[in-house]
Design goal:
Layout: H1 5-9, H2 14-35, H3 45-53, E1 57-58, H4 59-66, H5 70-82, E2 86-90, E3 98-102, H6 104-130, H7 135-148, H8 151-164
Antiparallel strand pairs: 1-3, 2-3
Helix pairs in contact: 4-5
């Protein structure tokens, strides 16, 4: 029987395990969209969901609200605009600022998707509940710790402390 290297690596592969889990969940949701003939990608969800209730919004405000990078929001919004789900437009007072709003096609599609999103949420909650732990609270605590100090900063400080003590710091 093959062992799961990501499990074996423990905290060293934590981000990889989250990525694997994310990919699995995203693939399932993608299949739901495809089988129901929705031209919609899981990676568009956060922006579409936000814009259905808070439209229009600037790209900067979207990035800040969702905790995503500005370039990522631009990339995803270009995909969504290419599928005519959102309408980007420049601020009349500052042409450097771009606003996004759902197009009529985007509003119609998100209206149809809302029922599926409720089902996806309910079924995901079942999986979370089956874990026997409050996974979402755990993720929130991890995020809070990372806001306080990133893994990058922690590693730099650990290596600096080790070097100052005269310990091994082989590269």
């Amino acid at each position: 029987m093959d062992t799961d290297l990501l499990k074996e690596l423990g905290p060293l592969a934590f981000a990889s395990r989250l990525k694997r889990l994310s990919n699995r969940l995203m693939n399932d949701v993608s299949r739901i969209y495809e089988e129901n003939r929705f031209e919609f990608q899981p990676r568009w969800f956060l922006i579409a969901y936000l814009l259905k209730d808070e439209s229009p919004m600037s790209i900067t405000a979207i990035a800040k609200r969702l905790g995503l990078t500005h370039p990522y929001v631009i990339q995803v919004s270009k995909e969504m605009a290419a599928h005519q789900l959102i309408i980007p437009y420049a601020d009349k007072e500052d042409a450097r600022r771009t606003y996004l709003k759902l197009s009529p096609k985007g509003r119609k599609l998100t209206g149809k998707l809302e029922e599926f999103w409720i089902d996806i949420s309910q079924c995901t909650q079942q999986v979370i509940d089956a874990s026997g732990t409050d996974v979402l609270e755990g993720i929130t605590r991890i995020e809070e710790e990372l806001y306080k100090k990133s893994v990058y900063r922690r590693v730099i400080e650990l290596r600096k402390t080790r070097t100052q003590r005269g310990g091994s710091d082989a590269k």
